[in-house]
Design a protein that fits this description.
single chain
C-alpha cells in the first residue's frame, strides 16, 4: 500500500495548496475595496413560482431598501398555481411610493431552464442600468441594494453576494449551512484570484450592458440550471471584472430548505450538476477533487484495517485544519458563522459519498427540477392596475 500512502500525501499537499490559494483570494477580495458613490437606476428581478407563503416577506424586504437612487422591483409569476401572482398584485396595488412590476411568465418556455425563461421575461420589461437578483423566498437586508451597487467600479461588470439560511433549528440544516459556507468561500476566493468559479442567484448583480454584451442566456439556454453560475462563467470570458460583496449588512437570508432526506439529496445532485459542465482548468480541478476524495475513502478503509492508518489520519486532520481556516477567514458574519464549524468534521465525512456518488449522478442529469405546472397568460401588471403592458 505504499502507493496509497504516497498518493494520499501528495493529494493532501495539493488540496492544501488549493485551499491556501482560496484564502489568499479572500484576502485580496477584501483588501482595498473600491466603492462607487454613484446611484445608477436599479431593477431588482425576482422569479416566483408557487411562493404564496414567502413572497410577502420578500416584497416587504425589497420595499424597505435604503437606496437613494431609482429602484424598480420586477416580480415574475413563473406559472404559479397557488395564487402567487394575485397576492403580489393585491399587495403592490396601494404602494404609491414604489415602482413594482408584476410579469406573468410566457406559456412557451424560451430556455430548457424554466427559471432562465422567467428571468429573461423580467429583464425585458425592466429598465434599470443595474440588474439585481434574489429569490422569492429570500429577505435582503435594508442596505443590500446600496452595498451591492457600491461595488460597481467602472471596470466591474458583475457583483456576487453571500446568502445563507435562517433559522437553523435542525441538525441537517446546520450541516447544509456549513456546506453553504464552503461553496461561498470557494466563490469569493476564486473571484478574488481572478478565476471565478461560483456564485448564487440569491444575491447577484450585473450591468444591463453586460447582459446585452453576452447575449443574455442564449449561449447557456440549453442547460437545465445555472442562471447564476453558468452566466458567471460567460462573464469570465469578457473584459469585465467580477467582485464579491461579503459585507455583513448585505447578507441575504432565506429559509433553511428541505427537511426530507430525499429532497435534500435531489437538491445536492442538482447543485453538483453545474460543476460537471465546467471546462478548461475548472474541469481539471473538479477531476482532481474527485480523485482526492476517492483517496480519502481508501484512507478510511485503511484506518479500519491493519494498514498504515497513520498517514490516513494525518491527511484527514490536515484537511479539517485547512478547511476550518478557509471557512473562518470567509465568515461574513464572523462569530455567527464560525460557530457552525463545530459541525465541520461531520460535513467532511459526508462529502465523500457526496462527491463520489452524487456528482456523477448530477453529471448524468439524474435529478428532478421543481414540478412543472400549467403556465399563466403572458402579461405585465404595474403597481397601478390601469397600467398594462
Amino acid at each position: 500500500m505504499e502507493w496509497l500512502v504516497a498518493a494520499l500525501g501528495t493529494g493532501t499537499l495539493c488540496y492544501t495548496i488549493v485551499v491556501l490559494w482560496l484564502c489568499v483570494g479572500i484576502l485580496r477580495s477584501r483588501r482595498g475595496i473600491q466603492c462607487d458613490s454613484a446611484t445608477p437606476s436599479v431593477s431588482v428581478i425576482v422569479a416566483a413560482r408557487n411562493e404564496v407563503e414567502r413572497i410577502p416577506s420578500c416584497l416587504l424586504a425589497l420595499k424597505r431598501q435604503q437606496y437613494p437612487g431609482r429602484l424598480q422591483i420586477v416580480i415574475i409569476d413563473d406559472r404559479s398555481t397557488d395564487g402567487t401572482g394575485a397576492l403580489v398584485a393585491s399587495m403592490v396595488r396601494d404602494w404609491e411610493d414604489a415602482d413594482v412590476v408584476l410579469v406573468r411568465a410566457p406559456d412557451k418556455l424560451r430556455y430548457a431552464c424554466p427559471k432562465k425563461s422567467a428571468l429573461a421575461a423580467g429583464i425585458e420589461v425592466s429598465d434599470g442600468d443595474l440588474l439585481l437578483f434574489t429569490d422569492a423566498d429570500c429577505e435582503p437586508p435594508p442596505e443590500w441594494v446600496a452595498r451591492m451597487v457600491a461595488r460597481f467600479a467602472d471596470d466591474v461588470g458583475l457583483v456576487a453576494g453571500f446568502a445563507c439560511a435562517e433559522p437553523l433549528r435542525q441538525i441537517r440544516h446546520r450541516l447544509l449551512a456549513v456546506d453553504n459556507l464552503g461553496v461561498s468561500a470557494l466563490a469569493e476566493g476564486s473571484i478574488g484570484m481572478g478565476a471565478p468559479l461560483s456564485c448564487t442567484g440569491r444575491s447577484l448583480a450585473y450591468r444591463r450592458s453586460l447582459w446585452n454584451q453576452v447575449g443574455g442566456f442564449e449561449e447557456i439556454g440549453h442547460l437545465i440550471s445555472g442562471d447564476d453560475v453558468y452566466f458567471l462563467r460567460l462573464v469570465a470570458g469578457t473584459d469585465w471584472r467580477v467582485v464579491y460583496c461579503a459585507e455583513a449588512e448585505a447578507v441575504v437570508t432565506g429559509p433553511p430548505g428541505p427537511s426530507a432526506l430525499t429532497a435534500i439529496l435531489n437538491q445536492k445532485v442538482r447543485h453538483a450538476s453545474k460543476a460537471a459542465r465546467y471546462g478548461g482548468g475548472a474541469r481539471w480541478l473538479s477531476v482532481a477533487i474527485y480523485g482526492y476524495h476517492a483517496l480519502l475513502l481508501a484512507g478510511l478503509m485503511q484506518i479500519v484495517s491493519d494498514g498504515p492508518w497513520q498517514v490516513a489520519w494525518m491527511a484527514w486532520l490536515c484537511r479539517w485544519g485547512v478547511d476550518a481556516a478557509l471557512l473562518s477567514s470567509f465568515a461574513p458574519r464572523q462569530r455567527r458563522d464560525r460557530v457552525l464549524l463545530t459541525f465541520l468534521p461531520v460535513v467532511e465525512a459526508l462529502y465523500i459519498p457526496y462527491v463520489l456518488i452524487l456528482v456523477p449522478l448530477g453529471r448524468l442529469g439524474r435529478f428532478r427540477w421543481k414540478e412543472d405546472e400549467t403556465p399563466s397568460e403572458t402579461v405585465a401588471i404595474r403597481s397601478h392596475p390601469d397600467e398594462i403592458c
